[in-house]
Specification:
83% of the residues lie in helices and 0% in strands. The chain contains 15 helices and no strands.
Length: 448
């Protein structure tokens, strides 16, 4: 027997979704904007420094992407405890997540510092660029513990239905990062090393702020701050399926880029195709922040509703957020279609790239409503703790997409055809497996 619905009428649901999603969106958007500022600061050191930063950033973003389960998994589990009325248990699980972040961060730090040079040389860059990238990475990996603590603490606060604090800390930390970069790179004269050091110091300050907030809440409600090995192991096991899910998504994106490279018939075509693809993927990723913000709200509210045993409310909430996903997807799709003829001029003077970018963006625009539903249902199932299904679904989707995109590349189908496959086959397959799951009841496990 389920409890009475804890979710109010439609307007109340909408207000709650907005209350969580809007600050989450601003926090998500702040990161790439400040990364652009970092690139501008380092860019004045020279092309080799900027190229080195690009390689180092690719490595670091991969690490963060793999470890994002520290935020996603913690959000759902903490929210579920909160919904069950066990705030102390919710905070205890949150603290376990923080200790797991410390343990993983320590391993990443050691491995990253030791393997910085081999990782950089995998990209095949020149010696000057490789040396610059390795210098940055060796210092940046010292911030792995603070960086992963930020992820875990963000998940705790989202699970507690608080997306405002992560926004404040994200903006303040990124602003501090810019100031430290400016000072350490130029007046102090540390160059690329100063940029890495500034980022580490800013991450440490942000992590400290997050930890203070979580620790105060834990003490206030009597939750233990000591590392609990069974709890940490449980958090780690719960994160494995989300790691697999993330790896399948990243594999699909890498496979798409590989197909673009393979499909080009000559060096000039490859240059144009890759440039247009990179710009299209950058814009697609930026618009994904809008949809991901709703998914973050879905994680937090779904976990809380299921924790409270509110099956009917969870079902209605899912329908409401899918509608939000469709509306948001249509809005971002229309926006992308409207700017497609002109946005290329902001990034490149190459007319061939500008011309090719237009049809690619129109394809991406048509796929935005599907992406809106996919992002929302992904968030709902993460909030429900349905990681094992998401891992299996990710593998199925990758297996379905890989032969199609590689076949297109083998027949030199071109960039537009590859983006059609990405939008229709990859995102379409994700839509099918997620909708199929959401229509059933197996994921709606109630209680703490």
């Amino acid at each position: 027997m389920t409890r009475p619905s804890t979710i109010g009428a439609g307007a109340t649901r909408d207000r709650e979704i907005l209350r969580l999603a809007f600050p989450a969106f601003l926090a998500l958007v702040s990161e790439p904007l400040f990364l652009l500022a970092d690139a501008a600061i380092v860019g004045h050191l020279g092309t080799a420094s900027l190229a080195g930063l690009g390689i180092a950033a690719a490595v670091l973003q991969t690490v963060v992407g793999v470890c994002v389960f520290l935020a996603y998994g913690t959000t759902g589990s903490v929210a579920r405890r909160l919904g069950a009325g066990d705030l102390r248990g919710a905070l205890t699980q949150g603290v376990d997540g923080l200790w797991l972040a410390v343990a993983i961060g320590a391993l990443v730090t050691v491995a990253g510092v030791v393997l910085a040079d081999p990782l950089v040389h995998l990209f095949g860059a020149s010696e000057e660029v490789a040396d610059t990238a390795a210098t940055y990475l060796r210092i940046a990996f010292l911030g792995a513990v603070p960086l992963l603590l930020m992820l875990a603490a963000t998940g705790v606060l989202r699970g507690l239905q608080d997306t405002r604090t992560p926004l404040v800390v994200a903006v303040a930390g990124n602003a501090l990062n810019i100031v430290l970069n400016l000072v350490l790179v130029y007046p102090v004269g540390l160059g690329i090393a100063g940029s890495a050091l500034g980022s580490v110091l800013a991450q440490a300050a942000s992590a400290a702020a997050f930890v203070v907030v979580v620790v105060r809440a834990a003490r206030r409600h009597g939750a233990s701050l000591r590392p609990d090995l069974p709890g940490i192991r449980a958090a780690g096991r719960a994160g494995v399926p989300l790691v697999i899910r993330t790896l399948t998504l990243r594999a699909a994106l890498l496979l798409t880029t590989y197909a673009v490279t393979l499909a080009a018939v000559n060096a000039r075509d490859q240059e144009v195709d890759l440039a247009a693809h990179q710009l299209a993927m950058t814009l697609w990723t930026f618009l994904a922040f809008v949809l991901d913000a709703i998914a973050i709200a879905a994680q937090a509210i779904t976990g809380r509703a299921l924790g409270a045993g509110d099956v009917a409310g969870t079902r209605e909430l899912t329908r409401r957020m899918v509608a939000w996903g469709v509306v948001s997807g249509v809005a971002t799709g229309v926006l992308l279609a409207l700017v497609s003829p002109v946005v290329g001029r902001l990034f490149t003077g190459d007319q061939d790239v500008q011309d090719l970018l237009v049809p690619v963006l129109l394809v991406a625009a048509l796929g935005q409503p599907v992406a809106g539903v996919v992002f929302v249902l992904d968030g709902v199932l993460i909030g429900a703790g349905d990681g094992r299904y998401l891992a299996r679904a990710g593998l199925v989707t990758l297996v379905a997409y890989a032969p199609v995109v590689l076949l297109l590349a083998a027949y030199d189908a071109g960039l537009v055809a590859i983006w059609i496959a990405f939008s229709a086959v990859f995102m379409g397959a994700r839509l099918v497996v997620l909708v199929r799951r959401a229509r059933g009841d197996a994921w709606m496990v109630t209680g703490a």
